[in-house]
Amino acid sequence: MAWIKLDPITKRRFQRFRKIKRGYYSLVILLVAIVLSIFAPFLAESRALLVIYNGQVYFPTFQYRTMATFGQTPPPGWSNIDVEAEYFRLQREWQAERVLYAREAAAAGDDQQKLASLAERFPNRGNYVIMPPIPWDPYQNDFWYSEVLNEIEGLLMAGNREGAERVARRDRLNELGDLINSGEITAVLADRMKSPTGDLVGLARSGAMPELTGLGVVPPNPPDSRRRHYFGTDSQGRDVASRLLYGFRISIFFALFLVFFGQVIGTLVGSLQGYLGGRFDIISQRFIEILLSIPFLYVVIILAALMVPTFWTLLAIMAIFQWLTITFYMRTEMYREKTREYCLAAKSYGASHWRIIFRHLLPNCLTPLVTFTPFAIVAAIFALTSLDYLGYGLPAPTPSWGELMDQALRLENRDKLWLTFAPFGAITLTLALVVFIGESIREAFDPKQYAKYE
After folding, report:
1. pLDDT of amino acid 2
2. 258 has a pLDDT exceeding 70
């Protein structure tokens, strides 16, 4: 039994839409992107998906775990029971332990005493962490690029060469780890041609060690697969790819909710205008004209100055103006359809006004609604992005394409091309997909394909 019965014309329209490949595949791609954005916490998140620690299995995505759970050392001034575990660092530390243990176990051979000593030095070699593809949440700051060399430098100055090598191995600075292990790092730092300042920061900035290029600098940082910042970081050290994904989720659902409420209200008002006509039509039309004369942007700016807009308050403000345009099209369609024979026949059988509108007339007036809805989604995404860019949209640090565009266009970031291409590319691709869908729907639902004129 079918849940929805479609008339033959509607079926032919959907079949025609499927034959328009650019629109059909754009719809598939957009739906996949929406589904992926719903599961964003499993794709871009600082919490691990799975941790195996001393034989026990943990699922940190669903439960808060402190540093004490996994024996991590907290930042200075903090207790390990107050800070959540740093899973990405934990993953790197345990990987480094496995590498160091394998190297020293190979050197120890069959010496059981040495192997037992190694087992005590590397107790976490059998533990594992599985991170999401992007191991950064959209609010997390990563200042590793400006801090890691100072951390290693401090350990070297304290005489802790093993600790310094562990940090280097943890962060996949293997060439530096080899120099620390062999003790050659002292001679390298003493060479003023390689390190003009005599420290690791100078070694990184001189370019003598390519793997240190880009370290010792503050954000924004370029794309780096080593740290799994696939689109780089922004001015606050936050992962751009993560903020793009969460920004897409906010933008698309904001647009869908806004267009849904706007189209429902506009369809209802426009249908009543066209069907009832008379005094209701005149009064409601004058009210709509008044609302259309109000500059929408100024209203949002004024309200944003009076209160901090949230997702729902901004949605409510924009919904006041969203429904106006569709009323004109639905009103015209109703005026045309209510004079048809089937409507007059329904009246003669005593059908109520609501039944005539929603059962008989509205299904025959949906062409403009279906046609204009994708373009309304484009306008809603563009409006939210524009407001965020101007600073009157969702408050910081909410992930936003408009906020990323604002960073990209600042004078100090003009040469940071990843900040430009990432948000502009994301919004261009999204809007292009929705436009392709809209054009294909308009072509598939064109009434000229099926109408007969006498």
Report:
1. 46
2. yes
- Dist CA 75 CA 97 (whole Å): 21
Q: Quote the CA–CA distance of 246 and 266 in Å, as a whole number.
A: 30
- What the block records as the tokens of 109 is 């051979």
Q: How many other CB atoms are found less than 10 A from the CB of residue 389? A: 18
Mean pLDDT is lowest, of 221-225, 237-241, 270-274, 369-373, for 369-373
For residue 447 the two structure tokens come to 């009434």
Confidence check: pLDDT of 8 > 80? no
Write down the residue that tokens 């294909």 correspond to.
Answer: 440
Residue 392 in contact with residue 375, Cβ under 8 Å?
A: no
- Look at residue 80 and tell me whether its pLDDT is greater than 70: no
Rg of the chain over all Cα atoms, to the nearest angstrom: 31
Beta strand extents in 110-215 (DSSP E only): 128-130
Print burial letters for 208-246: b (CB count within 10 Å at least 16), e (below 16). bbeebeebbeebbbebbeebbbbbbbbbebbbbbbbbbb
Kindly report, residue by residue over 331-341, the tens digit of the pLDDT.
Answer: 888 888 888 88
Task: Give the integer Cα–Cα distance in Å for 369 and 367.
Answer: 5
The CA dihedral of 240, 246, 250, 256, to the nearest 10 degrees, is 110
pTM of the shown model: 0.87
30 contacts: CB under 8 Å, gap ≥ 6: 430, 433, 434, 437
Tell me the two tokens of residue 331: 């009103």
Task: Give the CA count within 13 Å in the CB-facing half-sphere of 379.
Answer: 15
- 303/221 Cα distance (integer angstroms): 36
Do residues 269 and 357 touch, judged by C-beta distance below 8 A? Answer: no
pLDDT digits (tens, 9 = 90+) for 134-145: 999 999 999 999
